[in-house]
Fold:
Amino acid sequence: MAVVVQKYGGSSVADVRKLKQVAERVMRTRQAGHDVVVVVSAMGDTTDDLLATAKQVSPNPSRRELDMLLSAGERISMALLSMAIRELGGDAISFTGSQSGIITNDRHVDARIIEVRPFRVQDELARGKIVVIAGFQGVSYRKEVTTLGRGGSDTTAVAMAAALDAEYCEICSDVDGVYSADPRVVPAAKRIGVLSYEETQEMAEAGAKVLNAQAVEFAKDKGIAIYARATAGPLPGPDPSSDGTVVRKSAPRMPGAVVGVASEKDVIVLESEAPAADTLALLDERSVAGKQLHVFGDRLTVVISRENLHDEASVREAMQRRLGGRARLVDGLAAVSVVGAGINASYANVRAGAETLAAAGITPAGTATSSFRITWMIPRDRTNEAVQALHRRFIEAVQPLLP
Structure:
């Protein structure tokens, strides 16, 4: 039988009722003739609650101890889901990240998967069992428990799908796919039937919450199709893009079209006139990951997600001690981006976006581009307005072009 990997997010297993519904969906998949591997996130807001509790105990908790704490959430979910599947007559077994063979590098809180050794998973599938795996976690080559950062359960699922040569990897949440913007901000947002790996990765990097960027990177490298779907929806049919989003090698769109607008509200910009090597060494020592890096002459800027600053106070103190007045952190900003293949072949989209923001009375603090993305740094309190304006300009006002 073909292997199918399914991942269920925290909202899908938020309580016992929802967890039982997931168990029923897993059983339907099994009864359809598939070997099933299920990856689960922590229930509801468990991870946030554990992190908040840690901050009450220690303002700057050890990253290693955070991993030991936060990885407990997924272990609870995997055991409960396995029990629920058994109550429905399924033969299920649960594994932690380390038991399922997820090997990572030696970073805590934001580790990366370097290898998957799914021997125990394969053995249990061969015995006819449904395997339930704790997402978001693994074990380093030094035998330390590690976690994969926000959205890391997606990465667990895609990496496992690649290792098992799965037919596809299904990412299930309370949203029926990837939308052109957050529907809570833009009521006119449209579900996108098909996305390329690159577009999806850029959307994730820009702040879209449906899929994790590292997971998409894994899928692209291994050629794994990702189906982003609603947990409450049906199982994938002959055309999975009809009621979900399919992420694959290429999407049927004309180059240059904007496919989505995404935003990240809580970012900080580091500006430094100290030697770039000194500034970057400090960030590496403090395990602060940057999203965008620019060095021009004696000036360095790095865009940082605040969620990557688990010890912000000590980073600020170290920066002042070692770099003095040559470096500062600029707060109060958000990043808003438009994404699409080939959108920077000319400057037309950059100009159109800048004009749209100006018409809304929004003055960007900076602009950055990549092959698939244009990002404007704007005042945080204008984020939703910017997303709505850009969506009207690039998506609502544009008729789709057929290739």
The chain has a mean pLDDT of 92. Residues 260-396 form a domain with the VC0802-like fold (CATH 3.30.2130.10).
